[in-house]
Amino acid sequence: MLLGSFTHTVDKKGRVFLPAKWRGELGEIVILSQALTDIRRGVALEVMSMDAYVRRKQKLINVPDGNTSAVDLKRMVMYTTSDCEVDGQGRILIPITLRELAKIEGEVVMIGMYDSVELWSPANWGAFYGKYKDDPYAWESGIAAMVHSGDE
Hints:
- By secondary structure, the protein is an alpha+beta fold.
- It is globular and about 40 Å long.
- The chain has helices at residues 20-26, 50-61, 68-79, 96-102, 122-133, 143-148; strands at 5-9, 15-17, 29-34, 44-49, 82-85, 91-93, 107-112, 116-120.
- The strands form 2 sheets. The protein has a 6-stranded antiparallel beta sheet with strand order 1-7-8-4-3-5. It has a two-stranded antiparallel ribbon with strand order 2-6.
């Protein structure tokens, strides 16, 4: 399971180290894409193992092509998706198009999201986190109840 957070430097070529504790689960070839939840905002990227990608791709394939929005979603996901080899030093190369999309340069904030890792620019992460740090219940709106239902 991919948990925790890290901040790493992105070198001039666009390479960044994947934390050693995540590399085993992610594998030697990872999939890098715009985070599906951020297709409209374009603020985060997502790194996942090939297995996680295959599971998500199947869900995407099952979205019916009967409307323009579904086709547009598939097109945007595929446009921003690439495979990436983890080099001998544990780095991945973030393609320039994805770095520009997520405004990543200099540093990247990495957030473990169970089966994937989100990559954020510090500015985008700060804006997102800033909405919630002063009011940790601002996001709640019934989500916590769904997560904890049946815990009794």
